[in-house]
Amino acid sequence: MNREQFLAGLKDIAPMMIAYAPIAALWGTIAAGTGLSPFQAWLMSAFVYSGAAQFVSMDLIKSGTPLALLIFAITTVSLRHVLMSASISRHTTSIRRPKAMLLLFWLTDEAWALMERRALHSPITTSYFAGVAIPLWCVWMTFCAIGAVVGSAMGDTSRYGLDFAFAAMFTAVLAGFWKGSRTALVLAASAGVAVLAKLYIPGAWYIILGGLAGMLVAVVGATDGND
Amino acid sequence: MIEGWFIYAAILGMGLVTYASRLAGYMLLNGKTVSGRMKTALEAVPPAILTAVIAPTVFLQGPAEMIAGALTLVSAILKLPLLVTIGVGVASVALLRTVL
User: Fold this and answer.
1) pLDDT tens, A162-197?
2) A72, A203 contact by CB (below 8 A)
3) How many Å lie between the alpha carbon of B72 and the closest alpha carbon of chain A?
4) Which residue from A minimizes the CA distance to B98?
């Protein structure tokens, strides 16, 4: 473990740790309302560790969705991780395979975005990956459990704008990938398809569809330009 | 009241499919050198997925989120530190939601 690299990861993820504590607590209150015990709420946030999957699952469980359908829905919510882990595998070549497979358990959207940002100038090491991924997990499961115990004392978290922290962080990371007009086409395709899919296709297909649209435009653009 | 076995089965199933999706891309590509179209497609993953994740949040919720998104983007283009950029986004959306 390299202390400096771990701390660099921790420093990058720190704003998300602050922003996510109330969001995790909010999920905990919803979980308690859905009928999960504090232990079950803690176990789900520790083992599933995905905000998107957890929020969606509470909706589905509450409406009496059968188990197989629930798991299928969560699979569609999680498909984006396939592309994220494929992309990050280009930058983790110094990490031995078993260790990388363990670390990937903690591959959240947030950790992934920050690693892509770091990979613009240096390779991803075990210590940086751990620093960016594991502290947020600790905050997440702790506050999910606290929320489940405390119940609905949270009020409306959107008042503080904390739900926007995620979009703001992604926007900040996104700016680092700007490479001129060709990027504009990729962004337009991704944003356009994601918005349309969100409006017209139920479920969480918009991420994977928007992502694939951007990739397709990038490939077509490169073929046209002969490079 | 939901039965305990259902919750534990849901936790196990959800955890397994989530971890599988986190491993899948790595397992497919680790140790392989990609080139040509595959390389171009992979290089587009970060901007494409980052955009697809946030587009509905920024464009579909209302003017507060759109303006806050634009202000965040300006902070990012000015290369302000990450914490400051996130602060700009959170503070401006909180303020705009009250005002608008």
Assistant:
1) 778 888 988 998 998 898 888 999 999 999 999 999
2) no
3) 6
4) A159
| Average pLDDT per consecutive 10 residues, chain A (227 residues; last block may be shorter) | 94 92 87 90 96 87 87 90 94 94 96 95 96 96 93 63 84 89 94 96 86 95 68
Q: Which pairs with CB-CB distance under 8 Å and at least 24 residues apart come from A216-220?
A: A216/A189, A216/B41, A217/A185, A217/A186, A217/A188, A217/A189, A217/B44, A218/A182, A218/A185, A218/A186, A218/B40, A218/B41, A218/B43, A218/B44, A218/B48, A219/B37, A219/B40, A219/B41, A219/B44
CB B18 within 8 A of CB A177: no
pTM of the model: 0.86
Task: Give the Cα separation of A92 and A115 in Å (integer).
Answer: 10
Largest Cα separation within chain A, whole Å, is 60
- Contacting residues of A for B14, CB less than 8 Å apart: 44, 48, 53, 57, 70-71, 74
What percent of the residues of chain B are helix, what percent strand, and what percent coil, each to the nearest 5? Answer: 80, 0, 20
Per the listing, tokens 């530190």 go with B81
Residue B28 to residue A61: CA distance in whole angstroms: 32
Please list, residue by residue across A81-107, b when 16 or more beta carbons sit within 10 angstroms of its beta carbon and e when fewer do.
bbbbbbbbbbbbeebeeeebbebbbbb
Which residue in B11, B14, B61, B85 has the most chain A C-beta atoms within 10 A of its own C-beta, making it the best mutation to test that interface?
B14
Type of residue numbered A72: F
Residues in chain A: 227
**Nearest CA-CA partner of A215 in A185, A170, A195:** A185
| CA distance, residue A4 to nearest chain B CA (Å) | 19
- The amino acid that residue A168 corresponds to is A
